[in-house]
Amino acid sequence: MIHKNGIYYLIAIGLFILLKFWFASLENSGLLPLLQPTSALFGTMAGSAAVFSPEHGFYHAKFNILIDESCAGYNFMLMTFLMLYFLCIKYAQKPRSKLLLLPAGISAAYILTLFINASRILMAVLLQPAAESALQLNPAVAHETIGILTYFSFLLIIYTGVEKGLQKKYEKIT
To answer: Which domain does 167 fall in, by range?
Structure first.
């Protein structure tokens, strides 16, 4: 027997795979909806202005960093979408609600990704030199480690917050 939400899980996973393959074809200009607001948010938080180059991305001279396709946060956005959708789908009752959760989940994941990715870049700028020296890490490993820990921490916070919020909301209804 198929789970009552099985088809909706398959639709979300199919959308995830489709978007993942689409991402493989994108370059900096195709990722502007993620890169531009991320660079702007980072610039606001760090007091840094950026110059955009279609070939390279957003260059922040103050920190000598480039915000390009490798740090767009696209994969994080897709993971956040799936997590949010899978969390919320179990509480949705009507088929229409379950389908509307798809664009709602992508929209929420997009907004969260902008904030979290800009925060991740800021944390990398601030913490990477200390991580390199204190832990004797090379710059690439320090950068990856900070990114992984930041993304993982935010995923846990989002998961916990959304799950507890949904449980509270639906405890009152039932």
So the answer is: 6-173
Model confidence pTM above 0.85: yes
Dump the DSSP string for 59-106. Answer: EETTTTEEE-GGGS-HHHHHHHHHHHHHHHHTT--SHHHHHHHHHHHH
Q: Tell me: pLDDT of 23 over 90.
A: no
Any domain includes 1 = no
> What is the C-alpha separation between 139 and 117, in angstroms, rounded?
19
Which residue from 13, 35, 148 is spatially nearest to 85, judged by alpha carbons? 13
Provide the Cα torsion 58, 116, 155, 129; round to 10°. 70
Residue range 94-142, pLDDT digits in tens: 999 999 999 999 999 999 999 999 999 998 888 877 766 666 667 777 7
CB-CB contact of 3 with 9 (8 Å): yes
